[in-house]
Amino acid sequence: MRKRPIPACAAALLLLAAAHLPAQRDNESVASELMYVGTGTSGASHGIYAYRFHPGTGVADFLGLEAATPNPTFLVVARNWRTLYGVNEGGGIHDAEGNKVSAFRIDAHNGQLKLLNRVSSAGIGPCDLALAHKARFLLVSNCGSGSVALLPILPDGSLAQAASVVQHHGSSINLQRQLGPHAHGLAVSLDDRYAFVADLGIDRIFVHPIDLHTLSFSAGSESTGVTPGGGVRHLAFNANGRFLYSIDELDSTLTEFRYATGRLDKISTQLALPNGAQLQLGGSEIAFDSSGRFLYVSIRGNQNKIGVYSIDPHSGLPRPLQFISSEGKTPRNFALDLSDRWLAVANQNSHSIVWLKRDVTSGRLQSFHKHDNQVDSPMCIVFIPSQ
Predict the structure, then answer these.
(1) What's this model's pTM, rounded to 2 decimal places?
(2) Which of 150, 203, 357, 367 sits in a 20 to 30 Å window from 264, CA-based?
(3) Cα–Cα distance, 128 to 135 (Å, whole number)
(4) Where are the extended beta strands (E) located within 10-72?
């Protein structure tokens, strides 16, 4: 693993978790942004890094390490932009530093992060986070143990211990990856009354009801199956909450569901791959632009591409527009910046962050520039406005 100097903490920036938009973007008024990068820390990285991004020019100034924290492989930012939350992905039940969720106060002037607290994820291998829209709670999925926990958010933005935990049970047909439950992607209904959990190990999307009075949740009776052996990974609601979309990891399948009051009904399924490509492993992230007209997916494995889809406003059906190279290996995560004019890709295994320029009218992407040798094993990106 290459050695890299780690600059002192300086002004920074934040990234948006694909499927959980903290606030409506303003395409015209964003002068500069802070972008935070979560990483895997088994190599040369040490935690959460930052850039100051200028959407008018596409220039990204590297600011260095802002928080030393173990394996912050997924991040979300509070809807008031004041707090950053990150998982500390763990390796097993006896991992003393992992299997936690950390809360950081954001200084939007200089980008520095101050640790507020760190609590247990109430499971093994936390991998995804989802914020409520109006209520004060955070969901965390534990891939290793196949469980999901609800963490109340305290007035200062710090986290309380888990108020409730739901444990999944079952398996599916892939004997290497699906011998037990692996809770992964999360989404919350617009009214905050239901939690949606993609379980990669069971090939089901669970719907768990949330009690907003007690800020707790319980195992629901509703769940929807996806392609057997597909390994459903991540979820994204459209802007009005009528349709939910999922991307599979093991077969790169994109599926659309109609949603109504705690129930999902499958509408369509298609391979999220270029024409002529055979079914293959790779699906990773999925997210909408702020208009809700375009859906983006990342495909790892042999493809290393970003797929662009237009969404029919009435039926919700996704139509493929473009597959463009991620210009690196293993595009684990990506995020649209606050102006919607750029898409930043975290290529985990080529240790590179790539900026793709976006046409806000057509939704299409084009190559712009790449940063190598700055952040090792980038795994997640989020943006916030800079002050």
Answers:
(1) 0.91
(2) 150
(3) 19
(4) 33-39, 47-54, 59-68
228 pLDDT band (50/70/90 cuts)? very high
Residues 6+ apart with CB under 8 A from 280: 251, 252, 273, 301, 302, 303
Q: What is the largest CA-CA distance in the chain?
A: 52
Residues in a beta bridge with 38: 380
Q: Are 319 and 310 in contact (CB under 8 A)?
A: yes
CB of 380 within 8 A of CB of 15? yes
For residue 20, the model assigns a pLDDT of 38
Count CA atoms within 13 Å of residue 250 on its CB side.
Answer: 20
Identify residue 77 by its one-letter amino acid code.
V
- Token digits for 266? 């499958």
| 68-84 CB burial, b ≥16 within 10 A, e <16 | ebbbbbbbbbbeebebb
242 close to 258: Cβ distance less than 8 angstroms: yes
CA-based torsion, 314, 319, 325, 328: positive or negative: positive
Task: Name the burial class of residue 358, with classes exposed (0-12), middle (13-18) and buried (19+) by CB atoms within 10 angstroms of its CB.
Answer: buried
| Of the candidates 232, 84, 202, 87, the residue with the CA atom closest to the CA atom of residue 149 | 87
Instruction: Tell me the residue type at 248.
Output: D
CA of 43: how far to CAs of 3, 47, 136, in Å? Answer: 9, 11, 35
User: What is the chain's mean pLDDT, rounded?
Assistant: 91
| Distant-in-sequence, close-in-space partners of 155: CB < 8 Å, separation ≥ 6 | none
Query: Both tokens of residue 67?
Result: 């928080």
Phi, psi (deg, nearest 5) at residue 369: -155, 165
Tally the C-alpha atoms within 13 A of residue 150's C-alpha that lie toward its C-beta: 28
Say which residues have a Cβ less than 8 Å from residue 222's Cβ, sequence separation at least 6: 206, 207, 262, 263, 264
Task: Quote the DSSP letter at residue 13.
Answer: B
- Please give the pLDDT value at position 347: 98
Give mean pLDDT, residues 152-180: 97
Query: Among the residues of the chain, which ranges form H helices?
Result: none
Nearest Cα neighbor of 45 from 64, 61, 63 is 64
Dihedral of the CA atoms 94, 89, 370, 356 (nearest 10)?
Answer: 160
Q: What type of residue sits at position 200?
A: L
